[in-house]
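Input (DUF4402 domain-containing protein):
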Amino acid sequence: MYRNLSRLFLLGGWIALWPVAVAQAQPTETFGRESDDKARPLNIEIRSSLDFSRATSTGDSGGSIAIDPNSGARTVSGEIVDLGGPPFAGSAVIMGEPGRAIRLEMPSTIRLTSATGGSIEITNLRTNLSPAPRLDMYGRLEFAFGGDLILKGNVSGQFRGRIPITAEYE
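Output:
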């Protein structure tokens, strides 16, 4: 039934995140009042890494594993079998000047590599943020992120990579 269980993918929580915060010091409205001083720099703190957990391939065609940022649920498709273990959507908090609108950017695709030289991709990186995110009255904005892990052919190992996250004031 499962042709080659030795092709075990350990898609663990070692996807390191590379937060980048950029602040623009422009006077804007903060909860309805003008700010005369420079904006506090934005800071991004990663709370948990994106973790696709464990899976194995049942053929050579590959497949995908998706993590939903809203629910954290994992969906497996193609010639991939879920071997259990808890998947996790990544989570982070942005801190800065209260009430300010921000823009968050993540790459559309990143490549993960293993110690054995194999590589796979995460595509369709996405967050659970609204279209116009804004820091709350305490200057915080928490969000989760997920994506689609694409497996092609015969690769195995524990894959690691970095997801650059950039935040700027609007």
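The chain has no helices and 16 strands.
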